[in-house]
Amino acid sequence: MKEYITRIVEKSILHRLAGNKAIIVFGPRQVGKSTLLKHILKDNNSVLWLYGDQPQTQSLFTDISVPNIKSIIGNKKIVVIDEAQMIKDIGIKLKMFTDYLGDIKVIATGSSSFDLANKINEPLTGRKWEYQLLPLSFKEMSDASSVLEEMERLETRMIYGYYPEVALHPGEEKDRLLELVNSYLYKDVLIWENVQKAEKITKLLQALAFQVGSQVSYSEIAALVGLDSKTVERYIDLLEKAFVIYRLTSYSGNLRNELKTSKKIFFYDNGVRNALISAFNPLELRNDIGMLWENFIMAELLKKDMFTRNFAHRWFWRNKQKQEIDLIHEADGVFTAYEFKWNEKKNVPCPAAFKQAYPEIEFHVINKGNFFNYV
To answer: Rounded to the nearest 10 degrees, how much is the dihedral formed by the CA atoms of 143, 144, 147, 149?
Structure first.
C-alpha cells in the first residue's frame, strides 16, 4: 500500500499557487491537510511553516505588523499556517499578506468550518480560494491501485472507513480507527465551545449513528441522551461544523403532501459511525447494511462534489404516503434523483408520485454492482 495517496484537489491548489490570493484548506483533523501541502511543496525550498496551535506562533501573531511579518518571513516566498483557527483574528492577519505582501503566498489550514471560516470570510472577501478536504475517496484509492482492487476492499471500507491513518494501514484498521476517534473526534468542539459534557456528545453521536438515513427528531434524541432539544440542536450544529456529521433536508417542490421540514443526519465517514457504536462485525452478520450503504454512497458523492469543486445542492424526498428517494442532487440547474440499494438484483422503480410531479428529473439506482460509475 502506498504511503501517500494523490488527492484530487492537488492540481487545483497547484494552479492557485501562482496567484496572489490566500489559499484556505478546511477539513476534519487527521484527513491529511498538512500531508497534502507538504507533498505539493516538497521540492520548494522557499516555504516557511508556522503552527497555529503552538504558543510561539500565537505570540508572533499577537501584535503583528507588516514590518514584523517581513522580518519573520525573511526570504521565504510561501508561508503555510497550520491550524490557523488557533490564532486570534487570523482573518485580519491573513489580509495583511494579501494586501501588502503581494509577492508572498499564504496558505492556511483549519480543522473546522466554523471557527476559521467565521474569522476569515469577511476580512478575506475576494482574497481567498477555499478548499475542503475530507477522508480519502473511493476514486482516489482506486486511482492509486485499480477499481477492481478497491472494490475487493469494499467491505473493509464500509466498516472502517477512509481516514488515511486507517485506510493506509491494512490489518490495523480497528486499532487505528479507535485511536483516531478517541483522540481527535471531539477535540475541536470541546476546545472552541468550552463544552464540558463529552459523555453527552458521545451519547448524542451514538443515537445519531443508529438513525443514519432516518428522519431525525431533536426532541426524541434529547429524551434519549438526557439533554434539552436546544442543546441537542447546538451540539449537532457544532459537530457538523467540525466535519463529523452533516444534515440533509427534505426537498419540496409542488406537491402538497411532501414533507417540507424534515431532516436526516449522516456521518462523513462510515468508520467513525461504526466506532461510536462498536459495530465491527462482518457485513454478512449485520442488520444495518442498508444504512451503511446509504451513508457510504452519500459520503462518496459528497466528496466527489467537494473535490471537483462542483457546487451542488442535495436533499432527500419523502411524502406523507412514505414514498421516498434517498438523494435529490442539483448542480448547475440539473436535477438528478438517486436511490441507494446494496442488493444489485433488486428492482427499484421510481416512486409514482415523484415521477408524475417531476418527470424531467432522471432517476438512478446506485448499487454495489454499479456504484463505481457514479463516484
So the answer is: 180
Tell me the three state secondary structure of residue 252: coil
- CB-side neighbour CA atoms (13 Å) of 167: 29
| Backbone region of residue 247 per phi and psi (left: phi > 0; alpha: psi in -120 to 50; beta: other values) | beta
The residues near 172 (Cβ < 8 Å, ≥ 6 apart) are none
- In one-letter notation, the amino acid at residue 110 is G
d(CA 322, CA 363): 18
Neighbours of 169 (CB within 10 A): 13
100 Cβ contact list (under 8 Å, min separation 6): 66
The sign of the torsion formed by the CA atoms of 298, 339, 141, 158 equals positive
Which CATH superfamily hosts domain 10-132?
Answer: P-loop containing nucleotide triphosphate hydrolases (3.40.50.300)
The single-letter DSSP state of residue 285 is: G
Query: Where in the chain are all domains bearing CATH 3.40.50.300?
Result: 10-132
Q: Indicate the helix (H) or strand (E) that contains 317.
A: strand 313-318
CB 344 within 8 A of CB 327: no
CA distance 278 to 159: 10
Contact criterion met (CB below 8 Å) for 21 and 53: no
- Are 259 and 319 contacting, i.e. CB atoms less than 8 angstroms apart? yes
pTM for the full model? 0.91
**Each residue's pLDDT expressed in tens, for the chain with a length of 375 residues:** 577 899 999 999 999 998 888 999 989 889 999 999 999 999 888 999 999 888 888 888 888 888 888 888 888 899 999 988 888 888 888 888 888 887 889 999 987 655 555 566 667 778 889 899 999 999 999 999 999 999 999 999 999 999 999 999 999 999 999 999 988 877 777 766 666 667 888 899 999 999 998 999 899 999 999 989 998 998 898 888 888 999 999 987 765 555 556 899 999 999 999 999 999 999 999 999 999 999 999 999 999 999 988 889 999 998 888 899 999 999 999 999 999 999 998 889 999 999 998 999 999 999 999 999 999
Inter-residue contact 353 to 334 (CB < 8 Å): no
Beta bridge pairs of residue 330: 313, 335
